[in-house]
Amino acid sequence: MTDDQLAETLAAIRPADPTALGAARDRQNRLTKPHGALGVLEEVSIRLAGLAGTCPPPDPSPAAVAVFAADHGVHAQGVSPWPQEVTAQMIANFLAGGAAVNVLARQNGAAVVVVDAGVVTPLDAMVPEGARVPDASTIEPGGRPRLVERVVRRGSDDISVRPAMTREQALEGLTHGITIAGELVGAGYRCLVAGDMGIANTTASAALIAAFTGTDPAEVTGLGTGIDDAAHRHKIGVVRVALARRAAEADSDGTGDDPIAELASLGGLEHAQIAGFILGAAAHRVPIVLDGVISGASTLVAAALAPDVVDACVAGHRSAEPGHAVALKHLGLTPLVDLELRLGEGSGAVLALPLVRSAVAVLREMATFDAAGVTEKSS
Ligand SMILES: Cc1cc2ncn([C@H]3O[C@H](COP(=O)(O)O)[C@@H](O)[C@H]3O)c2cc1C
Ligand SMILES: O=C(O)c1cccnc1
Description:
By secondary structure, this protein is α/β, with parallel strands linked by helices. It has helices at residues 2-12, 18-30, 39-52, 85-96, 100-108, 167-186, 201-213, 217-220, 229-253, 259-266, 269-283, 293-305, 322-331, 347-365, 369-372, and strands at 63-70, 110-118, 146-149, 191-197, 288-290, 313-315. The protein is built from 15 helices and six strands. Helix 1 crosses helix 11, helix 7 crosses helix 9 and helix 12 (293-305) runs parallel beside helix 13 (322-331). The protein is globular and about 65 Å long. The mean pLDDT is 97. Bound molecules: alpha-ribazole-5'-phosphate and nicotinic acid. It catalyses: 5,6-dimethylbenzimidazole + nicotinate beta-D-ribonucleotide = alpha-ribazole 5'-phosphate + nicotinate + H(+).
């Protein structure tokens, strides 16, 4: 069942439409500005035209941010200075509207849905009355944040000791993410944002990025929520141990070329759902704005399953985590802003939403030289 849904989604992901891409490039060059003067905004508008298959593309609005939350067994290795229960406490904060992503989403007109993908701490007493909804199709623009429960298991295993989850659990997570993207698109959202919450998830992200890009753990493992030098060295060592364990596992079971096995072994429950969410958005040809190192790592998984998924992605920002830049380079994506953020939750992506809309508005609304009667340069 889940295999079928994944196969169907992967089959639906197609490259950018070359005719719409060409039309958007041509139109950008006829707008009343020097060629290329709007820089990366031009690239974004062309990318979204290719995704929509029409030039100009539709306004990427309204937007919805799905914050996927889960806990990580590798937390036991002392890779984060924060206690694990902060993951659940932050879910309560998201639902009460008090987290950074809530403030930024309110300001930028994005709806927020929180997904429990596998948090260890029981949420019951922390969830406000009426906040739980059965699925994401009822999330309203301008409405209060809601919680959707898609718990595959309560917390992943410690990746430095054993696989984070089984292949079936990784598949189940991917499928939930695909389904949630479909529900939001069905509800009328025309731009999706993937956010994350999970204490210790920068460790699993570093492991995925090292594995998918072949980069040394020292280059992709960062300070996360803020650790000192000794803890950082230890964290790099933990990622190294996880990669060595995975390499031995792949040697013995022959899964070295299987992105789902890689995800199951080194990732987290939220990485699985975020990767599915990205695949789902791409299958529906709706833009997906990426946040920091967690969504970067998840996009590597998605791109290994369906390389054309990248044509649906916009890199909202570049996080201070070093692995993020490595992931973006591997994917060929240029981040829109670099504000030295290192938060996650979808915060950097939500900040970039006005820029994504501006990119499209320019292509839709600017006058051409012909229409405005402006003389073009002579050579
Ligand atoms: C209060 C608080 C709010 C957060 N919001 C996002 N994160 C971010 O930090 C965590 C990853 O960093 P590490 O791997 O170092 O634990 C994730 O939960 C991520 O979403 C937060 C972390 C904290 C402490
Ligand atoms: O890159 C991110 O999004 C990030 C960085 C540090 C901690 N949590 C998330």
